[in-house]
């Protein structure tokens, strides 16, 4: 077996797809410390700079002092504390839903919720956008369901599949991200809501990269376009901490508590994590100024890259892809940026489709216009 593992790694290296862990530390002002250097950070998902916010760190420490280091059990045994239920209620109020549930991570939530939902009906068909996150793919693979992927953001293709593949099943589920993690573009939620209503489908929306940044009060795009039956998101990106949530009706919450293995068999999130969640939910609705600044920075980056001749795909968010094509070019541009003191790390297949390797520029409200111009100046001096 070890020989096969070595050969597999050799094949990954031959394709310029080898990855390795490197130590980094978030710093103030949109910077990180890495290999003893301070770098301008364009690769973290800390979109509002909350990961080092004093209120999050202090509240996390206070929760740990009051409730201890761990929760002791899964939520169904003895792991649900009063703090868990308070955070659940605050998430529901933030998202404008009847109820909510805290879960361990976004990956775990998608991988566990989707197969649980598929079990509810004798036959289920899932219709997912082709560019959804790996965790959704994992959930679809685990589901006892027919799974169909529609062309990215193509409502007509989705309707075709719903009509041809969804008519003979007992239940239908439509799955999308609201803000796509690698392209930075946005789902057409009004169109998806209309199709879900027309075909009697449950709409499931992943708001991991929209939560905190987009929508009314930073509550995500579903806050502006209600209709999804189930919305999940994370606290590990714009909300600065760790963990995930699912916001839904009381009916769906009761079902997940009884049928979702990711919730049933995982230890409940620990007190310090809940403290950071609580603080983030207090801060985020007050940060319209930071969201407006971030939107301006993102547009400045898109305009600059397009002026240099680069494709930024359909980006309309704080995620701006700088597409270069090959894995080798993405690695070379990443090194070029690093030499200039910029952490813009390459994203390669299988994370993105073959031929679309890129630098995924993740902007943050703690950056300045001068920081964006520094990146653009550096990119302008690079040649494939």
Record the strand order, biggest sheet: 4-10-9-8-7-5-6
Termini Cα gap = 39 Å
Number of strands: 14
Structural category: alpha/beta
- In terms of DSSP E residues, the strand content is 15-25%
What is the succession of H and E elements?
Answer: HEEEHHHEHEHEHEHEEEHHHHEHEEEH
Question: CATH superfamily assignment of the largest domain?
Answer: Type I PLP-dependent aspartate aminotransferase-like (Major domain)
CATH architecture of the largest domain: 3-Layer(aba) Sandwich
Assign an overall shape: globular
Query: Could you name the CATH class of the largest domain?
Result: Alpha Beta
Query: What low-confidence regions span 5 or more consecutive residues with pLDDT below 50?
Result: none
Q: Please give the radius of gyration in angstroms.
A: 21 Å
Q: How much helical structure, as a percent, in the residues?
A: 40-55%
Task: Tell me the number of helical segments per DSSP (H or I, 4 or more residues long).
Answer: 14
Whole-number count of domains: 2
CATH fold category name of the largest domain? Aspartate Aminotransferase, domain 2
InterPro entries: Aminotrans_II_pyridoxalP_BS (IPR001917), Aminotransferase_I/II_large (IPR004839), AON_synthase_class-II (IPR050087), PyrdxlP-dep_Trfase (IPR015424), PyrdxlP-dep_Trfase_major (IPR015421), PyrdxlP-dep_Trfase_small (IPR015422)
Keywords: Biotin biosynthesis, Pyridoxal phosphate, Transferase
Pathway: Cofactor biosynthesis; biotin biosynthesis
GO molecular function: 8-amino-7-oxononanoate synthase activity; pyridoxal phosphate binding
């Amino acid at each position: 077996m070890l020989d096969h593992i070595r050969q597999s790694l050799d094949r990954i290296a031959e394709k310029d797809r080898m990855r390795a862990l490197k130590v980094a530390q978030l710093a103030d002002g949109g910077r990180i410390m890495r290999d003893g250097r301070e770098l301008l950070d364009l690769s973290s998902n800390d979109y509002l700079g909350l990961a080092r916010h004093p209120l999050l760190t202090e509240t996390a420490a206070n929760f740990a002092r009051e409730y201890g280091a761990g929760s002791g059990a899964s939520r169904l045994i003895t792991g649900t504390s009063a703090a868990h239920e308070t955070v659940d209620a605050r998430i529901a109020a933030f998202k404008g839903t009847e109820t909510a549930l805290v879960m361990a991570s976004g990956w775990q939530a998608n991988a566990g919720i989707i197969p649980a939902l598929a079990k509810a009906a004798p036959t289920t068909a899932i219709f997912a956008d082709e560019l959804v996150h790996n965790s959704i793919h994992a959930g679809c693979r685990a589901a006892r369901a027919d799974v169909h992927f529609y062309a990215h953001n193509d409502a007509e293709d989705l309707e075709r599949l719903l009509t041809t593949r969804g008519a003979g099943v007992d239940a239908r589920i439509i799955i999308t991200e609201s803000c796509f993690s690698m392209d930075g573009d946005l789902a057409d939620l009004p169109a998806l809501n209309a199709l879900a209503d027309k075909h009697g489908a449950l709409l499931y929306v992943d708001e991991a990269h929209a939560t905190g940044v987009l929508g009314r009060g930073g509550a995500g795009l579903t806050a502006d376009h209600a209709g999804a039956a189930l919305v999940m998101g994370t606290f590990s990106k714009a909300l600065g901490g760790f963990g995930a949530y699912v916001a839904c009706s009381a009916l769906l919450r009761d079902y997940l508590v009884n049928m979702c293995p990711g919730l049933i068999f995982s230890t409940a999130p620990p007190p310090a994590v809940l403290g950071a969640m609580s603080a983030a939910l207090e801060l985020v609705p007050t940060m319209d100024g930071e969201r407006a600044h971030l939107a301006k920075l993102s547009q400045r980056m898109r305009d600059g890259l397009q002026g240099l001749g680069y494709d930024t795909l359909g980006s309309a968010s704080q995620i701006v892809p700088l597409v270069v094509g090959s894995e080798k070019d993405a690695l070379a541009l990443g090194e070029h940026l690093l030499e200039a003191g910029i952490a813009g790390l390459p994203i390669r297949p299988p994370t993105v489709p073959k031929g679309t390797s890129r630098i995924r520029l993740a902007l943050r409200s703690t950056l300045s216009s001068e920081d964006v111009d520094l990146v653009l100046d550096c990119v302008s001096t690079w040649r494939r």
